[in-house]
Amino acid sequence: MEQVYIKIFTGSSIEVLGIKCSLEAVNIIPIIKDEPESARLAGFGAPSEMLQVFVHKDELAVAQKALAAING
After folding, report:
1. Domain-by-domain residue ranges, the chain?
2. By the 8 A CB rule, do 54 and 7 touch?
3. First to last CA, the chain
4. CB atoms < 10 A from the CB of 55, how many?
C-alpha cells in the first residue's frame, strides 16, 4: 500500500499551530496527529506532548518551502 501522507514535523502544540497557519496560507490543509489529546479523551495518559504534522505527498515540495520560510 502506498503512503499518501508524509510526516513533515513533530513538535509542541504551539509550534504545530504556527506551521498549520503557514501551510494554510499556501492552500495546504495539513493533518495534525494529536496522540496526547486522543489519549486524554479516551481516559488514558499520554507519554509525550508531541504532535505530528502530515501533508499529502503531492503538496510536499510547497510544504517544505513554507517550513523553510518559518525557520529562516
Report:
1. 5-71
2. yes
3. 36
4. 24
User: For residue 27, is it left (φ>0), alpha (ψ between -120 and 50) or beta?
Assistant: left
- How many helices, marked H, and strands, marked E, lie in the chain? 3, 3
In DSSP notation, 25-37 reads HTT---EEE-HHH
- Higher-confidence residue of 41 and 61: namely 61
CATH superfamily of 5-71: Hypothetical protein rpa1041 (3.30.70.1530)
Taking residues 58-71, report their average pLDDT.
Answer: 91
Encode pLDDT of 3-49 as tens digits.
799 999 999 989 999 999 999 999 999 999 987 777 777 777 666 77
